[in-house]
Automatic annotation (TrEMBL):
InterPro entries: PEBP, PEBP-like_sf, YbhB_YbcL/LppC-like. It comes from the Bacteria. Pfam families: PBP (PF01161). This is Uncharacterized protein. CDD domains: PEBP_bact_arch.
Amino acid sequence: MNTNLQFKCTGITEGQKFPLQHTGRGEDQSPEFILANLSPDAKSIAIILDDIKHPLFGIYNHWVIWNIPVLDRIPGNIPAGKVVPSLGNAIQGIGYGRHKYAGPKPPRGKQHAYQFTIYVLDSTITLKENAKKKHLLRAIKPHIIQQGELTGVFE
């Protein structure tokens, strides 16, 4: 696995606070992702967003999306729905009980940490639209050629 994927989220810096527009208290819009150093073997991209410091669950999944075309700029504000036609028919599985991006929204006064993980894959993934994070991780495991993480906080 070539792990040196480099990426940025527009408005989100490692270890810093999520902008309100990307949270459940704002517009709840997914951020734009800028990717660099993509492998020439890349065939698709998957993204997972987890609350990684949830007091009850430890890690709580907020978003799963896969079969994103290989792009160096993944647009923000990805619309809700199982299939995203505007993004090459990418599939949004079930994260936070929904087929959509669900940004940070911890209880007021409680800071949680949220981590985006981007996986660059050597194939597209055949998986039911109602799949959850555990199903996606199992399906992509043999196909990951690059991976990167970015963590932000929100309270």
